[in-house]
């Protein structure tokens, strides 16, 4: 798969999470719960070659209320279960705040790595 196909594959897998909107535009206004898929950080293995690895940041945001912590912990299982392709590996999840159109949303930012062919 090329880089565009790889990103689309990740987005399609995340779209299997029930009742969660998936955004491929980081500038989109998020309606929680929502997942934003970034363009990847790329790693090359040498000069004059294509990138060999990609790391995507996938940010899962929820509404800012008293249930946010439990929703975010549920998000860990939801993202883990949605990633069914063994070529994608979740390497970390970092809690934080995602700002969408001036609104701060509690979030988890997942780093998802894959090897490119």
Detail the topology: elements first, then pairings.
Elements: H1 3-14, E1 21-23, E2 34-37, E3 41-43, E4 53-61, H2 68-82, E5 89-100, E6 103-115
Parallel strand pairs: 1-2
Antiparallel strand pairs: 2-4, 3-4, 4-6, 5-6
Describe what you observe in this structure.
This protein has a single domain, classed as Phage minor tail protein U (Alpha-Beta Plaits). The N and C termini lie close together (6 Å). Strands 1, 2, 3, 4, 5 and 6 form a 6-stranded mixed beta sheet that branches. The radius of gyration is 14 Å and the shape is elongated. With 117 residues, the protein is an alpha+beta fold. It has helices at residues 3-14, 68-82; strands spanning 21-23, 34-37, 41-43, 53-61, 89-100, 103-115. It contains 2 helices and 6 strands, in the order αββββαββ.
Q: What are the main properties of this structure?
A:
6-stranded mixed sheet; alpha+beta; Alpha-Beta Plaits; about 120 residues; about 40% strand
Sum this structure up briefly.
This protein is an alpha+beta fold. The chain has 2 helices and 6 strands, in the order H-E-E-E-E-H-E-E.
The sequence of SSEs as H and E is HEEEEHEE
Task: Classify the fold: give the CATH topology.
Answer: Alpha-Beta Plaits
State the CATH architecture: 2-Layer Sandwich
What is the CATH top level name?
Alpha Beta
User: What Rg do the Cα atoms give?
Assistant: 14 Å
How is the biggest beta sheet arranged? 6 strands, mixed
The overall average pLDDT, rounded, is 95
The total number of structural domains is: 1
Count of helical regions = 2
Name the structural class.
alpha+beta
